[in-house]
Design a protein that fits this description.
This protein is an alpha+beta fold and about 80 residues long. Helices cover about 15% and strands about 15% of the residues. It has a two-stranded antiparallel sheet with strand order 1-4. The longest helix has 8 residues. The protein is elongated, with a radius of gyration of 14 Å. The relative contact order is 0.21.
Length: about 80
């Protein structure tokens, strides 16, 4: 299976700043960045697949359509 690259969800809460952008090179166009959700299926910030056949689709949809097996055998408890 090829490596799937994800675009994280960026959050610009009140306590945000510039360090995630300057020190960790997060791509973001806003004024302040409080946190990034690197791997998320949460409706308030879903990760988006950036490469391959599923490029442009969100991670939740990929898992829903391909089945839970894509997550491997050790994730069931989560």
């Amino acid at each position: 299976m090829p490596v799937m690259k994800l675009q994280p969800a960026c959050k610009d809460y009140l306590w945000g700043g510039k360090r995630l952008i300057t020190d960790f090179h997060k791509e973001y166009q806003g004024e302040k960045l409080a946190e990034t959700w690197e791997l998320s299926c949460h409706p308030d910030g879903e990760s988006v697949i950036t490469n391959g056949t599923w490029g442009g689709k969100n991670l939740f949809r990929y898992i829903e359509e391909q089945g839970m097996e894509v997550l491997g055998k050790n994730c069931r408890r989560f």
